[in-house]
């Protein structure tokens, strides 16, 4: 009975080193080969994969409503949190300036400097063009690839990218960066070479879909909610090791332990908030991918769009 499903008695599928699963009732489809690393890394990977599997199932159950363009409650929450955080950063910087301007003693002036520094570190970032083209080659506007990208953009109603960058990654991406909101399309040459013509159109169509739906703007207006608590968690994490490891004794050891306790609790709190906001944001991100896939299908046809997804799923094994 080794090859029968314990749930529905259907045939089990066995593939390479993966745990066997049932294609009929999806039994054991959420079992994954263990990853390398410590128990924490393995637990995170396991939870991550389970969550991904559940999300995929929920997506199938959503059906048509998954493609609605209405703002989700999650998106509204992220924008509201971002507005509050941005206001908080401005107030923090303002108090810092006030402390420095009115301070006559050193401590308030130093505190003012710390507050301004914190606000600067936590600020939302627009991204830089230099960084977006880093490690790649900018393609000339009269290149064959640029002509193809323009045709796909025109056919799908997506805006043309200002800059097209070729690199050596098994990936493609689109972003809008800098104060002037420059649209950058990055295309990995190995990925393009592995795809046939129609699949290339689908992949480029998908990335242009992100530009058409202005996903960068959606990312920007939710950025404080998705980054501030993560950075705070990072800044409040002390290096590993206790007072004894640091060679501290007596009162100093006690003080260090107290600092560790306070900082550890703060860090855990920030990290939990960060994780919670990302869980809310994940649904929004999935919707953005679905909408980009719809543009891919409009550009290259449903069949090529689906096939290109299969090739992309294999890319991590090829790279
Ligand atoms: Zn079954
Ligand atoms: Zn995408």
Give the averaged pLDDT, no decimals.
87
Q: Whole-number radius of gyration?
A: 25 Å
Strand line-up of the largest beta sheet: 3-4-6-5
Q: Output the number of helix runs.
A: 11
Characterization of this structure:
The protein folds into 3 domains: 12-65, no CATH class; 70-123; 128-319, no CATH class. It contains 11 helices and 6 strands. It has helices at residues 39-62, 73-102, 106-122, 129-132, 144-156, 189-194, 197-212, 215-221, 223-235, 250-300, 302-318; strands spanning 12-13, 21-22, 137-138, 163-167, 172-177, 182-188. A 4-stranded mixed beta sheet has the order 3-4-6-5. The chain has a two-stranded antiparallel ribbon with strand order 1-2. A hairpin with a 7-residue loop joins strand 1 and strand 2. The protein is globular, with a radius of gyration of 25 Å. Bound molecules: zinc ion (2 copies).
Brief characterization of the structure:
The chain is α+β, with helices and mostly antiparallel strands and 319 residues long. Helices cover 62% and strands 8% of the residues.
Features:
binds zinc ion, single chain, about 325 residues, 11 helices, four-stranded mixed β-sheet, about 60% helix
Question: How are the elements arranged and paired?
Answer:
Blueprint: E1 12-13, E2 21-22, H1 39-62, H2 73-102, H3 106-122, H4 129-132, E3 137-138, H5 144-156, E4 163-167, E5 172-177, E6 182-188, H6 189-194, H7 197-212, H8 215-221, H9 223-235, H10 250-300, H11 302-318
Parallel strand pairs: 4-6
Antiparallel strand pairs: 1-2, 3-4, 5-6
Helix pairs in contact: 2-3, 2-9, 2-10, 5-7, 7-10, 7-11, 9-10, 10-11
This protein binds zinc ion (2 copies).
């Amino acid at each position: 009975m080794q090859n029968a499903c314990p749930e529905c008695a259907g045939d089990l599928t066995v593939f390479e080193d993966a745990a066997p699963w049932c294609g009929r009732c999806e039994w054991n489809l959420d079992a994954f080969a263990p990853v390398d690393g410590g128990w924490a890394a393995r637990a995170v990977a396991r939870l991550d994969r389970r969550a991904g599997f559940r999300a995929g199932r929920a997506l199938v159950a959503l059906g048509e409503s998954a493609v609605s363009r209405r703002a989700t409650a999650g998106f509204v929450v992220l924008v509201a949190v971002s507005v509050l955080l941005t206001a908080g950063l401005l107030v923090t910087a303002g108090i810092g300036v006030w402390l420095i301007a009115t301070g006559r003693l050193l401590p308030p002036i130093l505190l003012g400097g710390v507050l301004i520094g914190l606000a600067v570190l936590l600020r939302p970032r627009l991204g830089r063009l230099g960084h977006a083209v880093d490690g790649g080659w900018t393609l000339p506007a009269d290149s064959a690839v640029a002509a193809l990208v323009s045709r796909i953009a025109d056919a799908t109603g997506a805006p043309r990218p200002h800059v097209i960058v070729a690199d050596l990654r098994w990936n493609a991406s689109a972003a809008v960066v800098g104060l002037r909101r420059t649209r950058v399309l990055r295309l990995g040459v190995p990925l393009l070479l592995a795809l046939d013509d129609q699949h290339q159109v689908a992949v480029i169509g998908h990335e242009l879909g992100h530009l058409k739906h202005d996903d960068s703007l959606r990312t920007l207006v939710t950025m404080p909610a998705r980054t501030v608590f993560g950075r705070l968690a990072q800044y409040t994490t002390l290096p590993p090791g206790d007072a004894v490891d640091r060679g501290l004794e007596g009162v100093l050891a006690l003080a260090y332990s107290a600092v560790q306790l306070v900082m550890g609790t703060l860090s855990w709190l920030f990290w939990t908030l960060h994780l919670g906001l990302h869980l809310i944001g994940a649904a929004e991100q999935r919707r953005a991918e679905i909408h980009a896939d719809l543009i891919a299908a409009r550009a290259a046809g449903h069949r090529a769009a689906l096939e290109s997804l299969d090739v992309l799923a294999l890319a991590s094994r090829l790279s």
